[in-house]
Amino acid sequence: MGRQPCCDKVGLKKGPWTSEEDKKLINFILTNGQCCWRAVPKLAGLLRCGKSCRLRWTNYLRPDLKRGLLSESEEQIVIDLHAALGNRWSKIAAHLPGRTDNEIKNHWNTHIKKKLKKMGIDPVTHKPISTSTDQEPPPPQLQQESVVPSHSEADQNKGNETFLESAIIEIKEEEKRIMSITSPFSSTDNSDSFCTDEVPLIEPHEILIPSGPSSSTSTSSFSSSSGMPEEMQFSSLEWPEYYNNISIWDDFNFWDLLCEDGDKILAVDPSLNQFSRLVFDHEPWKFGLL
DNA sequence: AAATCGAGCAACCGCAAGAGA
DNA sequence: CTCTCTTGCGGTTGCTCGATT
Hints:
Layout: H1 19-32, H2 40-44, H3 50-61, H4 72-85, H5 89-93, H6 101-118, H7 140-147, H8 154-179, E1 258-261, E2 264-268, E3 277-281, E4 286-287
Antiparallel strand pairs: 1-2, 2-3, 3-4
Helix pairs in contact: 4-8
The protein binds a DNA duplex through residues 1, 3-4, 6, 14-17, 36-38, 50-52, 54-56, 58-60, 87-90, 101-103, 105-107, 109-111, 187, 195-197.
């Protein structure tokens, strides 16, 4: 029998995505939402396989993604969850909003692994690396807590502990539930599980606008529960001059966040000190002052 | 200044699970 | 129940870029 490959590889493009491809994919998903990924490339006019589109969206284009390195506290959460769950990156990522499993996996392999080894901790077992074999290993959970290093963020970690406990308990319960399934009818309750691929249709009120370090007049979080926050509306003073001259698609890496609000899209430019905002019609991808 | 090396990360691959016909 | 299709996940690869020689 054999599985059908995810795509007909003949004539399909591979490798890094161009901004033009990104544009097409974002345009399609924001216009139509996520549907059958296999159909996306065809409908969006992309010479990619659906899997590649899904990955690109999930790991890079999704509007709610955080950028940059994981913070100390996030790193600590990853370490603790990894101690409890192992390499279940998607489960770990589910407890770190705005982070993807791929990102966490990469960060683990490039940063955390080294860090733990440097500290004399085996990144696989989370036990102290020791040459002696007669050392009695502590129970897994207690042990992983004991080897986790304390640092200047201890206070924050205290807060994380309860978070982690509940996260781990939640996952354990989910596992128990799965294990205890004896009838197919009991498997339908997965409403409490969170999947990183299920969040593209983010509501405006769910988006937090990060405050820039020197934010003064125009940075704060959404607090309104519906519609476009007033603060996201443009004043001509906030409009960066260069936006009038560039194509947003030439390089939209400057996007930090965007969200749909009716037929509008909000985007934030973190490269500017004051997180200037732009609002534009996403159909037909022209933007300007409102 | 050029060559080499290594770290970091985006993207790919193959397998497994889920869903529906 | 079986088969097929789609999606999700984790491991791995390979490219890019900065650091070092």
